[in-house]
Design brief:
With about 375 residues, this protein is an alpha+beta fold. The protein is built from five helices and 22 strands. The chain folds into four domains: about 90 residues, conserved putative lor/sdh protein from methanococcus maripaludis s2 fold, CATH 2.40.420; about 90 residues, Elongation Factor Tu (Ef-tu), domain 3; about 55 residues, Beta Barrel (OB fold (Dihydrolipoamide Acetyltransferase, E2P)), CATH 2.40.50.100; about 80 residues, Helix Hairpins, CATH 1.10.287. The protein starts with 8 loop residues before the first helix and ends with a strand.
Length: about 375
């Protein structure tokens, strides 16, 4: 037994190293939980959020409508180039009226004949009335003259109606401007055959224009209605003020909202339809709590922030609802109250219950 000698120093060294590693692995959360972390602490404050909306759109006619023929035919006259300004009564387009003109001539001749027959029948009735009064005519002869007169009168009235129909048919071969208008779109060419009701051109009433914008759908956008907007058309002299007249409730196919603003008639004369125009307006959204991006994190329910308990100086996650995201901040609509203490910078190093200390405090 005396020959066996054990060197325990190496064993103790290995055990000590192992215990040290176990301490490093097992104790960080316990130790760190007792060491306050210096973070940025923000006192939540409710503010009135004002958003500036900047959009780019185009100038359009406020009152526009399609022009079409009431009957079909081949176009033999067309004065509908885009941008063409027409005065009330001017012909915009006309279809071939050869057959219709011939029918009109026939209707006029028919009416002339019917009126002549009516005059003769009226004279014959008057003559028989006189003879009957003198006793030299019979009642049967008078009745026959009366029937002939009524038949001639019916033929005359029918001929008049046929003439009116033929005249209307001739009128229907033309499209005339009912007011001073501008052609903003053309759909046909000279010589083309069109059907009744098919649009030939789109016309806009002169002087009435509006700016049309497509804006991203955002909360509170409907509040911009009737608000003042600064309009700045390209190529015109300086911006001018107007009002938002319409915010369409239905989204477009691109998921945007269509916004309209009137252009004053005194200004619109220098701005062509189709010109590019920009708009800028500010609106008050509502009362929100605004925090820097660094404060926002997430939990299993969605967006959240770390809230500091003022009594224990420890943090816990609190779910919030984000109203909008900006370049440097987020706007919260729910989840926080006035005066709540929220961690900003340093929030990425937190866990539930960790103590913190204010490295920087913001109001």
């Amino acid at each position: 037994m005396s020959g066996l000698v054990f060197d325990m120093s190496g064993v103790f060294m290995k055990v000590s190293t192992l215990l040290g590693l176990i301490w490093l692995v097992l104790t960080p959360t316990h130790i760190l939980a007792e060491v306050p972390l210096a973070v940025e602490i923000i006192s939540a404050k409710t503010v009135t959020v004002v958003h500036e909306i900047k959009v780019v759109g185009a100038v359009e006619a406020k009152d526009s409508f399609p022009a079409s023929f009431r009957r079909g035919g081949q176009i033999d006259y067309l004065d509908a180039e885009v941008g063409r300004q027409l005065r009330a009564g001017e012909v915009i387009a006309r279809i071939d009226a050869t057959n219709i003109s011939a029918a009109l001539d026939a209707a006029r001749a028919n009416l002339n004949a019917a009126e002549a027959a009516w005059v003769q029948a009226e004279q014959a009735r008057a003559r028989m009335d006189t003879l009957l009064a003198r006793g030299v005519g019979t009642q049967a002869q008078y009745d026959e003259a009366q029937q002939a007169f009524l038949a001639a009168q019916a033929s005359r009235d029918q001929a008049r109606a046929m003439l009116e129909t033929a005249e209307q048919a001739l009128d229907d071969t033309e499209i005339r401007a009912e007011d001073d208008v501008t052609v903003i779109e053309k759909f046909v060419d000279l010589g083309e055959v069109v059907s009744a009701g098919a649009p030939v051109a789109t016309l806009a009433l002169k002087g009435k224009k509006q700016a049309v914008f497509l804006a991203p759908d955002a909360a509170g956008l409907s509040k911009i209605l009737n608000h003042e907007v600064e309009l700045d058309p390209s190529g015109a002299d300086g911006p001018f003020s107007s009002k938002i007249t319409e915010v369409l409730p239905v989204l477009t196919s691109t998921g945007t909202v269509e916004i309209h603003a009137d252009i004053p008639e005194a200004t619109s004369t220098d701005i062509p339809i189709g010109a590019s125009i920009s708009g800028r307006a500010t609106i008050e959204i509502d009362q929100r709590i605004v925090l820097p991006w660094s404060a926002l994190t997430a939990d299993s329910k969605g967006p959240a922030v770390w809230v500091v308990d003022p009594e224990t100086s420890t943090v816990s996650l609190k779910s919030v609802r984000v109203g909008s995201y900006n370049d440097m901040t987020v706007e919260l609509t729910q989840g926080l109250d006035e005066g709540d203490l929220v961690v900003g910078a340093g929030s990425q190093m937190l866990f539930d219950g960790r103590p913190v200390v204010a490295g920087e405090t913001k109001q």
